[in-house]
Each structure stands twice: as structure tokens, then as C-alpha cells.
Amino acid sequence: MILGHKTMAELFSQLGLANTESEIEIFINSHTLDHSISLECAPFLSPWQQEFIKDAWINDSDWSAAIDALNVALRK
């Protein structure tokens, strides 16, 4: 078993989203998130995606760094 932080591409794949570099860039450029809304409440995520993000943060999982990076990228 390989342990360690996951990449943004792996996170997008786990969330069921297109995960090439260009597709990730398009997603980030197409979605913004107000600072008053937590990422796990983002209206453009499905309920199970929101739950995955919430659980990963609560458990400080290997996904946390990629989720943090996505959270920052969406705050324009």
C-alpha cells in the first residue's frame, strides 16, 4: 500500500470529474466559491462529493492537501 498525499488529478478522478490538466483548469476557471461558503457546501458539487470532501478534511486524510489546493484555487 502506498501512502502519501494525493494529487489534484487523483482528487478530480475520485470525485468523478475529468482529471487532465486542461480539464482541471477549465473546471477551476468555470467555478468560483465565495469566501463565506465552505468547499464541502459548494453548490456545484454533488451531495456525495460534498460528503467525501467533508470526511477527508475531518479525518485529515491523504486527500487533504489536494482538497486544500482546490479550495484555494476556487477562491478568486
Radius of gyration: 12 Å
Mean pLDDT, as a whole number? 94
List how many beta strands DSSP finds: 0
Sequence of secondary-structure elements = HHHH
Tell me the strand percentage band: under 5%
As a percent range, the share of helical residues equals 40-55%
Structural class: mainly alpha
The N- to C-terminal Cα distance equals 37 Å
Low-confidence stretches: none
- CA-based shape: globular
Q: Main sheet, how many strands, which sense, barrel?
A: none
Count of helical regions:
4
Provide structural commentary.
This protein starts with 7 loop residues before the first helix and ends with a helix. Helices cover 51% and strands 0% of the residues. The protein has 4 helices and no strands.
